[in-house]
Automatic annotation (TrEMBL):
Natural source organism: Embleya scabrispora
Cofactor needs: Mg(2+)
Binding annotation for Mg(2+): R392, R422
Domain named Polyphosphate kinase N-terminal: residues: 27-132
Annotated protein name in UniProt: Polyphosphate kinase
Record keyword Kinase present: yes
Length: 707
């Protein structure tokens, strides 16, 4: 394999014999590791010290996470098995073994989830005067008011679909909640099956009186007689289907990607089922009918206590009961952007000319940093051009509004809208058309690659020269999720970064083949090699007696080449700390393989989302932040960017941040060599360990003004 150029350095691939010296069973199964991540979410819901409405929210998050896992990962695995394309996993498991493990483990987790809701959270909600009731528990007055609501708002949108020789079994859309209804004709005595879809646009839990709720399907079930007049309603059973909803878009240079994606989104509705959830009291004959008509296997059926679809608990968690939630937190303006002597907004460009600014969301306000940067750029008559990537953004996005304003004022605006952002495809198609109509140049990236990098470049006329201002982040340009996701972003006017960004945008929008950058590492060409090179450099530093360590923070760690580089570093004696939120396929603590590797996971009120790499550098620490997780798709099939931080202040901040996450005094989960995650939330004396996120909130509250 020829040497690869990366970040201004030449990297040679690891010797072929290096991998052969590593044991064959060195990788954990990625699907099992993902289920372990969702189990950690469930443990937060099970923890009685978690505020009550946050426990309800974690139950909803667990459910929606599992929905997506089945729609994408399980569906993809089944498709590969069916087409004969499935191969043995890196863990050594055969595809069918992986699928069997998923069925077994997900069944156990869903049972725990249901138990937590029914035995812990539901009674606790009742004690807090928030009641989730069955219809039979309602008062006569509540029943009457619900009947009026049913006739006015629910009945008009219901469509009962019969199944008989003249009416084939209806299509059941993915994730829809349905009632299987058995009715009998009193004259003929014949029984019939019908399906009633619970309207998804109506509230999942209907409020009958203040803080008293009943599931919508129970209201519909109670008044089924109005839907089937003249028939005897013999029974009803709730069920829910999960379908394959992963997109498969074939790209070529000639085809319009937007049109291809729209066609695929229509086909997505008819993906094959991969899971059938039913109430555990379902009639066996009705279950047989559903299984036969939907074409699901026995192990894909999940009987559960009602109500099904607890993703609806988000609405309960949103209730205005602050005493049952995490303490209120409002992000402040970053100290480098805070104006002490005036109430006016800071001049972001002037602040960036003074120094690089490292913002840490949600602790530093997105609105007064990244959003303000774009809004000022749009309004500034000296700004000539704005170039921006959009992967996900909010429904009423001020980011999109700023770009539209910039284009309408005559600025050159290039927006790379990633149409294939999973489950946000419809929204991104809408943004693409809105931006095009405003006069923006809209492109959809490089054929065959998904653009996941978080980049913004502003070109400004200053006297006789042009200056470039840049933002490079780890999270999306979404003001709403910026209040919930933990992310980092660099605002810089550094000429090297500006030149790198210009070259990268030219590559994304045109035919540039630039692959070498000065202060960036860019996937798919240089990012993996750049990371592996730096890991190997730490091995050389360690052998030379210089300070050496590797510390990585990522959402997931799956890439085998990166994992093997970490194993070789550990075998050489280099300390390796890994802060991984989700999937980790590396086995830590294996004698002779990974004895110096520690893996920690932290979950909390904010979604840990930043990606950070810290290297000892022989005494000169090297720190990078970027958009890429350490997975095949990110390193091989996406455009990702990481930027090297400069200056002792930012390096020290990120080093301290990693210290905090890996500290024995910090609450976290620890990964063992067998793939087991163990929660460490209390010290030996029973006191609770430090919560990283609460610690950072308090540190921001204490910090005032510029240094």
């Amino acid at each position: 394999m020829p040497p690869a150029k990366t970040g201004g350095a030449t990297v040679t691939a690891a010797p072929a014999h290096a991998e052969s010296e590593l044991p064959l069973d060195r990788f954990l199964d990625r699907e099992g590791s993902w289920l372990a991540f969702n189990e950690r979410v469930l443990e937060l819901a099970e923890d009685p010290s978690t505020p009550l409405l946050e426990r309800a929210r974690y139950l909803a998050i667990f459910a929606s996470n599992l929905d997506e896992f089945f729609m994408v990962r399980v569906a993809g695995l089944k498709r590969r098995i069916a087409t004969g394309l499935a191969v043995r996993a890196a863990s050594g498991l055969q595809p069918r073994e992986v699928l069997e493990n998923i069925w077994s483990r997900s069944r156990a987790l869903m049972a725990r989830h249901s138990t937590c809701f029914h035995h812990d959270v539901l009674p606790a909600l009742g004690e807090a005067d928030i009641q989730l009731l069955r219809f039979d528990d309602l008062t006569d007055g509540e029943r009457q008011s619900l009947y009026a609501l049913f006739r006015e708002r629910v009945f008009p949108v219901l469509t009962p679909l019969a199944v008989d020789p003249a009416h084939p079994f209806p299509y059941i859309s993915g994730l829809s909640l349905n009632l299987a209804v058995i009715v009998r004709n009193p004259r003929s005595g014949n029984e019939h099956f019908a399906r009633v879809k619970v309207p998804p646009l109506l509230p999942r839990f209907v409020e009958t009186s203040p803080a008293r709720f009943v599931p919508l399907e129970e209201v519909i079930a109670e008044f089924l007689g109005d839907l089937f007049p003249g028939m005897d309603v013999l029974g009803h059973h709730a069920f829910r289907v999960t379908r394959n909803e992963d997109l498969e878009v074939e790209e070529d240079d000639a085809e319009n990607l937007l049109q291809a994606l729209e066609r695929e989104l229509m086909r997505r509705r008819f993906g094959p089922p991969v899971r059938l959830e039913v109430e555990e009291t379902i009639d066996p004959h009705v279950l047989d009918l559903l299984v036969r008509e939907l074409g699901v296997g026995e192990k894909e059926v999940y009987p559960l206590p009602g109500p099904l679809d607890l993703t609806g608990l988000h609405a309960i968690a949103d209730l205005d009961r602050p005493e049952l939630k995490f303490g209120r937190f409002v992000a402040g303006t970053h100290r480098d952007l805070a104006e002490v002597e005036t109430a006016q907004a800071a001049d972001v460009f002037a602040a960036m000319r003074k120094r690089d600014i490292l913002v840490h969301h949600p602790y530093d306000s997105f609105a007064t940093s990244v959003q303000a940067f774009l809004e000022q750029a749009a309004a500034d008559p000296n700004v000539l051009a704005i170039k921006q990537t959009l992967y996900r953004t909010s429904g009423d996005s001020p980011i999109v509004d700023a770009l539209v304003d910039a284009a309408e004022s005559g600025k050159q605006v290039l927006v790379l809208v990633e149409l294939k952002a999973r489950f946000d495809e419809h929204a991104n198609i809408t943004w693409a058309r809105k931006l095009e109509q405003a006069g923006c140049h809209v492109v959809h990236g490089v054929v065959g690659l998904k653009t996941h990098s978080k980049l913004c470049l502003v070109v400004r006329q200053e006297g006789d020269a042009l200056r470039r201002y840049c933002h490079i982040g780890t999270g999306n340009y979404n003001p709403k999720t910026a209040r919930l996701y933990e992310d980092l972003g660099l605002l810089t006017a550094d000429p090297q970064v500006g030149e790198d960004m210009s070259n990268l945008f030219n590559r994304l929008s045109g035919y540039s083949r630039a692959q070498s950058f000065r202060r960036l590492l860019v996937a798919p060409h240089s990012l993996r090699n750049g990371l592996v090179e730096r890991i190997e450099r730490e091995v050389a530093n360690h052998e030379a007696g210089l300070p050496a360590y590797v510390r990585l923070k990522s959402n997931s760690l799956v890439d085998e080449l990166v994992i093997d580089a970490l194993y070789r570093a550990s075998q050489a004696g280099v300390p390796v700390d890994l802060w991984i939120r989700g999937i980790c396929a590396l086995r830590p603590g294996v004698p002779g393989l990974s004895e110096t590797i520690r893996v920690r996971s932290i979950l909390g009120r904010f979604l840990e989302h930043s990606r950070v790499w810290v290297f000892a550098g022989g005494g000169e620490p090297e720190v990078w932040i970027g958009s890429a997780d350490l997975m095949h798709r990110n390193l091989d099939r996406r455009v990702e960017a990481a930027v090297r931080l400069r200056g002792d202040r930012h390096r020290d901040e990120m080093t301290s941040f990693m210290d905090l996450g890996m500290s024995a005094e910090t609450a976290s989960w620890h990964l063992d060599r067998d793939g087991t995650w163990t929660r460490h939330a209390t010290a030996a004396d029973g006191t609770r360990l430090r919560d990283v996120q609460e610690h950072l909130i308090e540190s921001r509250r204490r910090r005032r003004g510029p240094e």
